[in-house]
Amino acid sequence: SGDTAGAGKDYAAAVKADPANFSALMNLGAALEAAAEKEKAAEIYGRAVQTAAPGEQRINAERALGAVSRK
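-> structure tokens emitted (71 positions)
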């Protein structure tokens, strides 16, 4: 339980600076999800899937996208 809005802004800035930053995308998605911004989170997780390396990164991004899409 931290400053979700502040963290979201920081992650959004990181994604703007580097749109392929997988960690920033996943963290931004999580911050949006925590803020009940389900559609925005799904969009960001979808971008994370596209930038993910094969294997664990892609699996984690697909799981996050699937989970937020079911909520």
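The first helix runs from residue 4 to 17.
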